[in-house]
């Protein structure tokens, strides 16, 4: 019985990030009235961190980035699942994701990307009620001890500066 007690070694490492619960708890099951991705397009691009607006979807910086330049692509329509998106929305999400990759390579010189969607709260979606695709730029050697030991992310510039660079480059690439 002691093998299953809290804190008993089980061979897994864990990274506890309780500070994220305030964000997750507030937005996981957000309805359209209190959804941050529904609210963002109603704001000025600079305030909402939007870098590009398309016909069916838009791209914005993640307010809680895993790395500098971490973008999200969201449909305007408040839908939770990728399988709920219509053809026009899925096509534009794909196109904006490709453009985001080109822009991030140009602006930041990243070496690769993590791209994906967490579908549902159990899959790790912080805002499970509104579909969004993550585009996280990666650089060789970008994983370091700061987030693990010091509970600190080293981001080289402010979100407003990153948004301006990406937004300016979006139509040029």
Task: Explain briefly what this protein structure is.
With about 170 residues, the protein is an alpha+beta fold. Helix content is about 30%, strand content about 15%.
Describe, in plain words, how this protein is organized in 3D.
The protein is 31% helix and 14% strand. By secondary structure, it is of the alpha+beta class. It has one domain: HIT-like (HIT family, subunit A, 2-Layer Sandwich), CATH 3.30.428.10. A five-stranded antiparallel β-sheet has the order 1-2-3-5-4. Helix 4 (87-108) crosses helix 6.
**How is the biggest beta sheet arranged?**
5 strands, antiparallel
Which sequence of strands runs across the widest sheet? 1-2-3-5-4
What overall geometry do the principal axes of the alpha carbons give?
Answer: globular
| CATH classification, class level | Alpha Beta
Using the coordinates shown, work out and report the CATH topology: HIT family, subunit A
**Helical content class:** 25-40%
Give the helices and strands, then pairings:
Elements: H1 21-27, H2 36-39, H3 45-48, E1 50-53, E2 57-61, E3 71-75, H4 87-108, E4 112-116, E5 133-138, H5 146-149, H6 159-170
Antiparallel strand pairs: 1-2, 2-3, 3-5, 4-5
Spell out the key features of this protein.
single chain; 173 residues; alpha+beta; HIT family, subunit A; five-stranded antiparallel β-sheet; 6 helices; 5 strands; globular
